[in-house]
Amino acid sequence: MNISDILSPECVLPDMDCHSKKDALDTLAKTIADSDSSISQTEVFDCLIARERLGSTGLGNGIAIPHGRLKNGKSTLAAFIQLDTPIDYDAVDNAPVDLLFALIVPEDSTEEHLQTLATLAEMFSDTATLRKLRRTNSSERIYAILTG
Prior knowledge:
Elements (H helix, E strand, L loop, with lengths): L11 E5 L4 H14 L6 H14 L3 E3 L2 E2 L2 E4 L6 E11 L9 E10 L3 H15 L2 H9 L3 H9 L1
Parallel strand pairs: 1-5, 3-6, 4-6
Antiparallel strand pairs: 2-3, 5-6
């Protein structure tokens, strides 16, 4: 799986102004819904919130990977936002989050979902990648880093 298979350049938003976890998830849901006319922002948001209720998707080091399985989803979709100011996200290390990669998969795509999450977790554990992502506010450059 390549990140470029699930993430389009239009779904990479740098320097976003979100003031809460809910605000960030809403921004991600809108971005994903805008990329696929067959799903609504509300469906995506509800999917992300349902997963967050099971436990925070904040991994630590300022990273969160909100994700979920969408009942009527037809394909895997993603969005990435870089926040201008980190927010409280209930991350495992209690540190605020400034980089969020949302992932929505069809409800029956369990194996693909787990493989994609593993790929993302590995990518976001690389300190050099995180440094690059935080040092740019160009959506084109961020997309290149994420898909490189």
